[in-house]
Amino acid sequence: MASQAKWVYGFGDGSAEGRADMKNLLGGKGANLAEMSNLGLPVPPGFTITTEVCTYFYDNGKTYPPELKDQVAAAVARIEASVGARFGEPANPLLVSVRSGARASMPGMMDTVLNLGLNDTTAEGLAKRSGDPRFAYDSYRRFIQMYGNVVLGVDHHHFEEILEHAKRDRGIDLDTDMKAEDWQAVIKDYKKMVESELGRPFPQDVQEQLWGAIGAVFGSWMNQRAITYRRLHEIPASWGTAVNVQAMVFGNMGQDCATGVAFTRNPSTGENKFYGEYLVNAQGEDVVAGIRTPQHLTIAGKVANKSDLPAMEEVMPEVFAQLDAVRLKLERHYRDMQDIEFTVQQGKLYMLQTRTGKRTAAAALKIAVDMAEEGLVDRREAIKRIDPASLDQLLHPTLDPKANKTVIARGLPASPGAASGKVVFTADEAEQLSGRGEAVILCRVETSPEDIHGMHAARGILTTRGGMTSHAAVVARGMGRACVAGAGELRIDHKTQTISVRNVTIKAGEMLTIDGSTGEVMLGEVPTVQPELSGDFATLMGWADEIRRMKVRTNAETPLDARTARRFGAEGIGLCRTEHMFFDPERILAVREMILAEDEAGRRAALAKIEPMQRRDFVELFSIMKGLPVTIRLLDPPLHEFLPTSEEDMAEVAKAAGQDVPKVRQRALQLHEANPMLGHRGCRLGVSYPEIYEMQARAIFEAAAEVQKSSGETVTPEVMIPLVGTKRELDILKAVIDRVAGEVQQSSGVKFDYLVGTMIELPRAALRAAEIAESAEFFSFGTNDLTQTTLGISRDDAASFLPEYQRQGIFEQDPFVTLDQEGVGELVRLAAERGRKTRADIKLGICGEHGGDPASVHFCETVGLDYVSCSPYRVPIARLAAAQAAISKERTARD
Ligand code: PEP
Ligand code: MG
After folding, report:
1. Fold of 396-529
2. In whole angstroms, how far apart are CA 289 and each of 292, 516, 804?
3. Residue of the nearest CA to atom 6 in ligand 1?
């Protein structure tokens, strides 16, 4: 069996052994190179060593399967036959690139080696054969540098120093001015340095070079950068990487050569226009590395970006036309926007990569809607294409157009959104400051994979060098961070810790604003405005609404939140946390007075102050919601969030309650709880002091009567009792509510419907759901508390150890963010079933944080909940996630 294992898959010359759907085995790059070969596109021949070899490598003490050597040798021979050159042959050498390629794209995280196969003799042969010694020796020195660094581990700066010296000695500024002899001298110095650093010469044997590079690529799967990237993007280490070995083609052999990267549609806006950058006479990584400022592919792109460098469309019209045809072919084939890499060698086009292009959320929406309208995909597919979490990018504030702003520089609009923060110059500082809750803007000349932790921590990223496809731009778009790239007028000075332009200097720690949609860089903090849901966003949401079954409500208690949620399409309020209505200073005093009162009379006096405020609040909420359901949860204040702690606060409460300070202090001490999250909160408070819930019920029903009378709209309040564990608790409190409802109907002369239900947020409540449903007309799963109480992990203390739990894989995700489906989810499922058995039409919803988390929303669909409720800014995310959940349920039902 083992002797038949296939570890190597060839591609090129219009056919391949692999296919696009073999990503798990061949990695994304390898699978797509195979697919492009099968499509007949011009792909330099090569082969892919599978991800299974990577797994084998790590499972077997970094060794290879015994058959691999022969399979690689045979594959190299196929390349040789195809291009008519031989690996290591002095007169006519084959050169190859060796690149990583995992299942998921991990840009710049792993190692790459180009020009492999060069040594002292083949370099000479290449010089003769190409007739361009400068090109040959430049390639050789690049190879020594890359291989020396990536495979042999020689630090960059050793190479840079030699190169700088060589240029200085010759009075040369640009690499392009170096002649063949100059490069030969550099090569000599490079080799000498490598030998003295490592104690052995730079390898001249091309087989040794090849296996060294293959080993380095597999080794780079476990480098720190790759590990961090995988953690941030939830990519399992077990996937492994493939290695792609491919015949080199050269974009740096003269003025009829070029290399570039492109997107089949604009990755920032989604516009159906070819969008890309290229460099004449340049090799591979030059474009992405942001070392030279790239030129635009199309004339339109050049004009739009006010570039004075000529477009490829003008410089190489024929090759451009071929490339444009490839673009259309790829889009039709993959039915999605592609990110491609190409090289032009002496006027001939070669395709080096295609993959699904990363895009901003706005672009994703436009592309999905356009492709559905172009007939490339159907609406369901369009809905599935959008990552619900990415909508967050569109729901962030943008700059207030009316705000004053001082624009000090402009760069490229690399990743949309506006962000303000304190200036920092290193990724570590970004991480430290943001860890302390500060907003930061990470300012760099350019970013590299070592910076990703800081980019993740920052609100925005600003670079002074690099284009729309530079590392900073690509990574920021992927992370949804605002980014302005290549703001070349700005100068970063690490010594003085400043960033400056003309006569403006900003120090580290001062505020700066960037607008990643326009490329503007502004002084200080510029005010922002709330986003609107319109255009493609609204269209796609409309399609999602037609498909989803679950309703989407919002958690809101302020008129501002309720209005925002309505704008985002909320279909009611699923949770109004009444204690949150008392956070403002004037109101909290009344609540404290009520909590600290010694007897019922004291409490009733404080409640009398609160009641009119509550009634006004509810009138406003009912009016905004215009007949949509509104679930109001009766008071659930974890006492520690409300008790006064400072002397000043105590004095204030004492004054308001007409008591002396020591008495208030004593009462506060008496109420102090060791474990407030599990203490005297929720319905327990209502059981001890029914007058509190009585006041709230009265305020709710009077408001309902008032709004119903004045607007003619039917108002059906849903009164919700928190933290119920037994049917008896619910019955005691329901009796109070029903009594007050009757009284208000009588006194107001208005008949209204109302429901009384309960939260399910304790395991006991879930287990006893059948009996609780005898009294409850609805259940709302409070999965914040249900997670806390099921896992026995305090919501307030989880942060101190949960990250470690995630690192060790005990929890894949934070269970307070993504529902623990196996544990907490099991209770939800069971309670839903038991509740329905008792009361077939019981309304079921979820109102914990999980209601806005796409994976948890999927779960809710499988349980068949009636609605999810989430914070206003998550409403569109939940609408889309609910539609996707409905689509995958249809699919499961069909299969
Ligand atoms: C819950 O516990 O899930 C809930 C929504 O209530 P709170 O977060 O207010 O405790
Ligand atoms: Mg709760």
Report:
1. Glucose Oxidase; domain 1 (3.50.30)
2. 8, 20, 34
3. 782
